[in-house]
Amino acid sequence: MTALVIDDDPIMLGTIPDILELLDFDTESFDDPIAGLNYLEQEKPELVLCDLSMPQMTGLEVLQKAKELHPDAIFIVMTGYASIESAVDAMRMGASDYIQKPFTVDHLRLIIKKSMTEKQLRQENRELKAKLTDRYKFDNVIGRSQSMQKIFAQIEKVAPTNASVLIHGESGTGKEMIARAIHTYSLRKELPFVGVDCVAIPSHLLESELFGYEKGAFTGAASRRTGLLESAEKGTFFMDEVTEIDYDVQAKLLRVLQERQFRRVGGRDLTNIDIRILAATKRDPLKAVHDKIFREDLYYRLNVIPIELPSLRERKEDIPLLVNHFIKGAAALTNSDVTVRIESDALNVLIGYEWPGNIRELKNIIERLCIMANDNVITLEDIPPEIRGAQANFTLDINWGDELTFKDAKDKWIEHFERDFLEKALKKHSGNISRAAEKCGVNRRTFHRLMSKYELGTFRDYRN
Hints:
Layout: E1 2-6, H1 10-22, E2 26-30, H2 33-43, E3 47-51, H3 59-69, E4 74-79, H4 84-93, E5 97-100, H5 105-135, E6 137-138, E7 141-142, H6 146-158, E8 165-168, H7 175-184, E9 193-197, H8 203-211, E10 212-213, E11 225-226, H9 228-231, E12 236-240, H10 247-259, E13 261-262, E14 271-272, E15 276-281, H11 285-290, H12 296-302, E16 305-308, H13 319-333, E17 341-342, H14 344-352, H15 358-372, E18 377-378, H16 385-392, H17 406-428, H18 433-440, H19 444-453
Parallel strand pairs: 1-2, 1-3, 3-4, 4-5, 8-15, 8-16, 9-12, 12-15, 17-18
Antiparallel strand pairs: 6-7, 10-11, 13-14
């Protein structure tokens, strides 16, 4: 390790390097602060000991300049009794510690060891914070919840492959963000990512948009046009709301997945294509197959890797992270240098809300709140009435009479909650008890026991 000593006292310049040598430091010493700062800039020593009272520059001036040149250095000021107040000022400016002259070897050793330990802890905290940030953020997908951590793990495994992925989740849960994250961490990341919202294009135009067309294929086709699939060559092609595609067009997509070939509208020749296909839907894909609106063979081709996104109400522990992320994004949107702060009671209301529009709704609300916030603070009064009211009205209307004890009333409330929770879970997962139990974090045997307790019937009663 290297150290720098700056002091205009020749006795100290002769003594301190010997002491530091005993502590395993290679030391350079200067009686001229300017020369010392030049050495600091070039050599970046781990430790700087500087006297506070010098004629050319004060120790505080040296400290200020040193922090600009080498902010990570441990800076210890040396002071006499009369300048203790200045030493405290130096601590406020960023000095690691101060030591009063005269001092012993053991005292200096103790000060240096303490300062180095603190520096190490700060560094570890910075690294930990960076790791936590990475852990809770995958590209632009954010979440600390167990469900999102599982999805991050899935992305890490599937991204480097060419496997097709089918993403299922409610509207606004971030399906396209997941698809973009997969592309970003894939071997195709430097190549195009082309996405299409299959419900945004009229069904009679979707085929020509996807596959392109030849000149004269239909009225108005004055020249050949490249389709979206072909524009994603070598890259990733993402289809949102894939279950809404016309049944005949689905058959042509199946050829793309099976053969990596297609024909342009009005064309005879097959065109080879090298793309990775990702798809998403807000509709339950198996139910769509059952209802004959989604081809079963296409479903199995796309569903090589299924990713099911939870709704925001199922991952409420992620809301504070998302709010913080969207607040930072709103600052960039409004070109503001000031970060808006949200009060805890306002945040609690946002956490308690059910968010039917999921992440998209939360993002829009936060952007609105940041723009309209007074004094850059979001308060409870700023939260829209429909959100505050929704939480305030979340009470169970029970009319069991005044004769109930607190314990009896609580037990009945719990029974009502458990029955309602289980029924909703079974309906959501089409009566699949194993899946419902897994998603609820309940042991399958416990789930069966509760179904029996509340006489909830069999899985057939909940099949869609």
